Amino acid sequence: MLNLKQDWQTYVPNFITISFILIVMVFSYVILKSSVSSAQLQQIHALSQQVELPKTQTLAKQVLSQSLVNKKQYFQVVHAYQYEKKNIQTYPALDPNRIK
How many separate helices (H) and strands (E) can be counted in the chain? Predict the structure, then answer.
């Protein structure tokens, strides 16, 4: 009987911890699969129109080509923007009047 009580005292905290981790993971998955708000969609649209960061622009255009944009894709575009902005090199100016 004493052994069963000790087992119970070790399993309950482990069960609570594992349950909490699983609940957080399921909740995160549901949030990432939900669709973006109109403000976030406008931000993706603005990133697809800029020419300063070409890789971010390409990714934003790919995301906008889909019928439904979820938060995972939105965060990928924002991450690409921040990464490219941080590591940007000085690109030559793109002047349409200066065609050789």
Answer: 4, 0
φ and ψ of 35, to 5 deg: -80, 160
Ranges assigned E (strand) in the chain: none
pTM: 0.68
For residues 49 and 40, give the distance between their C-alpha atoms in angstroms, rounded to a whole number.
14
Which among 90, 37, 75, 80 is positioned nearest to 58, based on CA atoms?
Answer: 80
Q: Extract the tokens encoding 5.
A: 């009580």
Q: Which residue has 């995972």 as its token pair?
A: 72
The span from the CA of 17 to the CA of 32, in Å, is 23
pLDDT in tens, 41-57: 999 999 999 888 889 99
